[in-house]
Amino acid sequence: MPRKVSIQMIADQLGLSKYAVSRALSGKSGVSQATRERVLEFAKTLGYGLPSQKAPSPAPDAASSFVLICMNPSNRVDPFYWQRVLDGLISGCSERGWPHVIVSQPVSFPAVSHLSPQEIIAPHLDWNSCLGLIVMGAYPYAALQLMARTGKPLVLLDHNEPLLDFDSVNHANIEAGIIIAHHLLAAQKCRSLIFLGDDGRSASFAERRIGVRTAMERYGGPEAKLQEWELAYEEKEWLTATAERFVQLAPEQRPDAWICANDDIAMQWMQQLQRMGVAVPEQTRVTGIDNVEAAAHTSPRLTTVNLSKEALGSRAIEALWRRIERPGTPMERLHLSATLIPRDSA
């Protein structure tokens, strides 16, 4: 290719995914005929070296069908949690011989009445080949309604929508909150706790907070106290704002331990405490939830709750397979259990 034209360059110019361009150029199914012709014409214009006279695949069959994975854009840059969930999804697809297509859609879709749901969600795909949808993370009710109107089997991953009858696969977030709080109350003899979270970011954070409250009621006793600090996790300033709030506490108001809604918050907050001269775990304990890989390499190593992220993804593929094979069966809401990982920070 004299002008070094790449598939990614074509995808960027046409506003398509690299996957769609690759399928179109190679003559494989998974894209509409209109998209294929558009890609081939543009590639020819740029002088891209096309394969030698390879005819497009015929009408899609079971072997050429694909799973559409809809990923909330805010989760794309999270290597600790969502990338591992995605790895589980891809692995699950591979085990069943299912190709997959990933679209990172906005959390709300434009209300364009003259377009079909398929044209709004992914106009470049051949929806006749779509086996079903896996929806990763939180989407608004209206967006999920639109996805349901495609008529394809749909599984929610790490999200619930009680008003829509979808299968869902989630972590046992309430159980995780109970486990970590129980550990601090019973094993560490802590009597004052602060929960750091952001309920507006995800349902899982809110559920973990509920679990902590439940543990306080069950195991805390009359002397145990819980404070709940809400932070703006999506904003970079949350760490500074939390530190400013902390320094305003009188010594007797400072907690025995912190429960953070996820490991990322916990690791950043533990470092901030250390910068302020607060020793962990000697003066206060810090815990997280998720068990990301980096949690085992902090100093001190972070006590957390393990949530099987790859298993969450692969289990969602199993749920989709069940829905395809047994479409009339009752909907399922599955929760994968959580396990305490005690380390040095608490």
Automatic annotation (TrEMBL):
<protein>
    <submittedName>
        <fullName>Transcriptional regulator, LacI family</fullName>
    </submittedName>
</protein>
<dbReference type="GO" id="GO:0003700">
    <property type="term" value="F:DNA-binding transcription factor activity"/>
</dbReference>
<keyword id="KW-0804">Transcription</keyword>
<feature type="domain" description="HTH lacI-type">
    <location>
        <begin position="5"/>
        <end position="65"/>
    </location>
</feature>
<dbReference type="InterPro" id="IPR000843">
    <property type="entry name" value="HTH_LacI"/>
</dbReference>
<keyword id="KW-0805">Transcription regulation</keyword>
<keyword id="KW-0678">Repressor</keyword>
<dbReference type="Pfam" id="PF00356">
    <property type="entry name" value="LacI"/>
</dbReference>
<dbReference type="InterPro" id="IPR046335">
    <property type="entry name" value="LacI/GalR-like_sensor"/>
</dbReference>
<keyword id="KW-0238">DNA-binding</keyword>
<dbReference type="Pfam" id="PF13377">
    <property type="entry name" value="Peripla_BP_3"/>
</dbReference>
<dbReference type="InterPro" id="IPR010982">
    <property type="entry name" value="Lambda_DNA-bd_dom_sf"/>
</dbReference>
<dbReference type="InterPro" id="IPR028082">
    <property type="entry name" value="Peripla_BP_I"/>
</dbReference>
<dbReference type="GO" id="GO:0000976">
    <property type="term" value="F:transcription cis-regulatory region binding"/>
</dbReference>
